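Contributing new complexes? Match this layout with beta-D-mannopyranose.
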Amino acid sequence: MNYSNASFVRRYKGNPILTGKDFPDEYHILHCFNSGVIRFRGKYLMLNRLEDSALKPYFWIADSEDGYDFTPREKPIQMPEEDPRFQKYASINYYDPRITQIGETYYIMHACHSEYDCRLSLLKTTDFEDFEWLGFVSDPGNRNGILFPEKINGLYARFDRPMTSWDGGNIWISFSPDLIHWGQSECALKNTAVRWAWAKVGGGCAPIKTPEGWLNLFHGVRTQCKSHYVYQSGVCLHDLNDPTRVIAVSEKPILTPMADYELHGQTPSVCFITGAVVEDDGEVKVYYGGADTVMCAGTIQVQTLLDLCHNRL
Ligand code: BMA
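Output block (do not edit by hand):
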């Protein structure tokens, strides 16, 4: 079934494209979702968020020639689990890896959870074989950290999402001279600016540079029936030189949970974009977690995203 009337992202007909069953049996993987995706050496590389039946996390790479048919590698990547600081602040979970290429280096910013709440951590690699852990890069109470692919006015930049008890969650932008120390933070997109996301908004994947500005494929959340959260995806456009300034926001979401694999799973009604690859012809392959359980793909044009931001569609 095609749900294109309600979602501008066209779902790949072979969804879901990767699930827990695709990983070796002895790991007992239940969930494969919210994975970062990037083009690497002419192919597509997906860094998957996995959870086994005891909810132990793994980051595990899968490779693809065509962007849809992904083959997992033999083993998960080695995380800094021997490091006492990592043990302390990632004792419950590490999750939602977002990949950004800056020059020849690939950075993976992800969330860690512990009894001290959630904070951001940063890995780097040049070959996706060996990874260097750069440490924690936020205080507690922050997630959805996603690096911009280049410096802006001489500083690295990222989306992040401090969690405040006052207003749920908004998208902020922070700056850094060295990728480790972050500040000059500004709120860029408030949940109140998105009519279908009154609970919170947060970044999705690395921003996409266009001549008109940075496209930001974000997630927006609303509460339904008090305790049920619905996660949709939207798009907004940030100024190229001052991304703390949002130029335009799409009134409509680009992806809304409607397919079975988005409505049913460990968290019902979730489409959570965590990767996007822009092709030479202007098509964007979008990757998202369905119901916190499976990985899915879809496509949308860069021009459609721009038209949506300006509410021309
Ligand atoms: C967010 C994060 C995501 C998850 C989403 C929906 O707060 O935990 O990893 O996909 O909730 O449950």
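Reviewers usually confirm one structural detail per submission. For this one: The chain has a mean pLDDT of 96.
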